[in-house]
Write a structure and sequence with these properties.
The chain contains three helices and no strands. By secondary structure, the protein is mainly alpha-helical.
Length: 73
């Protein structure tokens, strides 16, 4: 198993891990772990879309905010 998959044994189904590993070995994709941290969105339009889509207590809202903040960087 790739070290990139450590800790993802449960959330990512085995067939998907096998497929990703196969593509990685063939050089078709690269897998890079990314640790997301809480952050604030800089783009007001992006923040508006996140607020509009999920309620404040939703874990999906937090995940989207973290991912989008990482992309903004």
């Amino acid at each position: 198993m790739l070290t990139e998959f450590e800790g993802l044994e449960s959330p990512v189904p085995r067939p998907a891990r096998i497929e990703l590993f196969s593509r990685h070995v063939k050089g078709r994709i690269s897998i890079t772990p990314l640790r997301l941290v809480d952050g604030e969105l800089e783009d007001p339009e992006v923040a508006w879309h996140v607020r509009r889509r999920w309620v404040e207590t939703s874990p999906l809202r937090r995940a989207a905010t973290c991912a989008l903040a990482a992309l903004e960087q």
